[in-house]
TrEMBL record:
Homopentamer. This is ADP-L-glycero-D-manno-heptose-6-epimerase. InterPro entries: Epimerase_deHydtase (IPR001509), Heptose_epim (IPR011912), NAD(P)-bd_dom_sf (IPR036291). HAMAP family: Heptose_epimerase. One of its GO terms (molecular function) is ADP-glyceromanno-heptose 6-epimerase activity. It is an enzyme of class 5 (isomerase). Its cofactor is NADP(+). Substrate binds at residues 169, 180, 187, 201-204, 215, 280. It catalyses: ADP-D-glycero-beta-D-manno-heptose = ADP-L-glycero-beta-D-manno-heptose. It comes from the Bacteria. Coiled coil: none annotated. Keywords: Carbohydrate metabolism, Isomerase, NADP.
Amino acid sequence: MIIVTGAAGFIGSCLISKLNEENFNFIIAVDDFSKIEKAPNLEGKKIQERVERSAFFEWLDQNYYEVEFIFHIGARTDTTEFDRDVLEELNVRYSQQIWQKCIDYQIPLVYASSAATYGLGELGYDDNESQIPQLKPLNPYGESKNDFDIWALQQEKKPFFWAGLKFFNVYGPNEYHKGRMASVIFHAYNQVKASGKMRLFRSHHPDFKDGEQMRDFVYVKDLLEVCSFLMHHRRNSGIYNLGSGKARTFKDLAINTFTSMGLEPNIDFVDTPADIRDKYQYFTQANMNKLRSIGYTKPFHTLEEGVKDYVQNYLSKEAYY
């Protein structure tokens, strides 16, 4: 059995599809299944059992001997969530319990961290574990992810294999339910479909022209390949960046969305909201050397390739992965 937490969400549901493609069909899907807007993400997938998030540890205590691997993808991922108690409970304490169970039952673990831990990138975007305690996330969500990374690194007892993955700007199918937290590409497609144009934030930084703010956009299918590699590799425990390794501009993203829809670009610029302007990231780019150094050799989708696949094979067809 392979456990996937956050199973009904964007990345978790895509991961189950990837595992099914590799003939792993005894999947234990863990989530809060009361959120019906996520239900379509699991339709047609081969799942052995659905376990409510609140009942998971009791289930694991009774079934641990059948569990081969845990992917802990579930979290409160809303970057506008300011209830620190909720974030502490779901992103820190719950993860700590999973960590301890993996030690007790000798289960390998991959968990989702976040590039939100890097803040404004004052220390760069290198997955150097010695720098993690010095990082300055910009919001409580990023803080909660960094708090768990720090805690994990401090532990004397660790799972025999574990990896924390700092996801950068992930985009791809199965994010229909995410609302404002969905990727910029998802919102771009829907804006263009509705109005024929797209709005981007104007730059308020002298070093960046309008639309030339840069992010490391990573296609979810690349993330799934890395998860599969780590499940089979099971060596070189630690915390790893997971981006494309190549920063691209929002203007590039917009143009590729129009192109994938067979349309000429039509872009407007609007002011970045004042309440987030001083915390706005103008550049992120994952240093991927560490993952490459342990033997991961597959190429990542370019932005052109990823956007085309997402738009033409999923968004335009309202299809799921």
